[in-house]
Design goal:
six-stranded mixed β-sheet; Nitrilase/N-carbamoyl-D-aminoacid amidohydrolase; single chain; alpha/beta; 13 strands; 7 helices; 259 residues; seven-stranded mixed β-sheet
């Protein structure tokens, strides 16, 4: 199958962000992709998470997700993107990744578990952690995809849970905060999760200046198949579930582990 990575430069203009998502989804579908992945906070983003995020949050049946579903349906492509989801607390929201099928149906929802309270940031001041730590895996076109968000990448346990739950591809929707050695860490961690679990990792990131860019797709052997660099844009790459199966036979670590 063919997967597209949509690297955005999202800001606070939700309609502008949705328009770019729609344009990139159209380009991805035209290029033969059956699924397109967008970053964390794809529909509303700032340099730092602040009190405006809960104010801009919506339920998953609200206008923003309705428009994302419409985009998926219009272009007949599965679509994965990060949104700000309202919670029962008016001053806090969920950092949520949604997946819509090509018919516009909701395939999956993942609320970020590990909030970025590091590097001088306090995401948990305005965002609630997902109440469930169960791995979220959905199926599309015969392939199983696991959902992660940004800081989750630093917690290998979640990636392993997703692999154990059947994921053949990890979709890591991110807005990786810039800083010393942060790009190197982003690239290394995506590759590490791919090698550890013998699966594809699709790390899709916001572009600079908010984030580091460098959206990548890493194969089960740890080889980077595409790298979008620093500019916003969309590109499609072929993946093969058979490659996952072959590598898992070559290195049967998931069966051999004793812990």
């Amino acid at each position: 199958m063919r997967i597209a990575l949509g690297q955005l430069e999202s800001g606070t203009d939700i309609q502008s962000n949705l328009a770019v998502i729609d344009r990139f989804a159209a380009e991805a579908a035209h290029d033969g992709a059956t699924l397109v992945v967008f970053p964390e906070y794809a529909t509303y983003e700032k340099k730092k998470v602040d009190a405006t995020f809960p104010l801009m949050a919506e339920p998953l049946d609200g206008p923003i997700c309705q428009e994302l579903a419409s985009t998926a349906r219009r272009h007949r492509i599965a679509l994965v993107a990060g949104v700000v989801e309202s919670s029962e607390e008016p001053d806090k929201a969920f950092n949520t990744v949604v997946a819509f099928g090509p018919d516009g149906s909701l395939l999956a929802r993942y609320r970020k578990i590990h909030l970025f309270d590091a590097q001088g940031f306090g995401e948990s001041t305005f965002i609630k952690p997902g109440p469930s730590t169960d791995p979220v895996v959905f199926e599309h076109a015969g392939t199983h995809f696991g959902l992660m968000t940004c800081y989750d990448l630093r917690f290998p346990e979640l990636a392993r849970q997703l692999a154990d739950a059947g994921a053949q591809v990890l979709l890591v929707c991110s807005s990786w905060v810039p800083g010393t050695h942060k790009t190197e860490q982003w690239l290394a961690l995506n590759a590490a999760r791919a090698i550890e679990n013998s699966l594809y990792v699709v790390g899709v990131c916001q572009a600079p200046p908010v984030s580091v860019g460098r959206s990548i797709l890493v194969d089960p052997m740890g080889v980077t198949e595409t790298d979008l660099g620093l500019a916003s844009g969309v590109t499609a790459v072929n993946i093969s579930p058979e490659t996952v199966a072959r590598v898992r036979e070559l290195f049967p670590t998931l069966r051999q582990r004793r812990l």
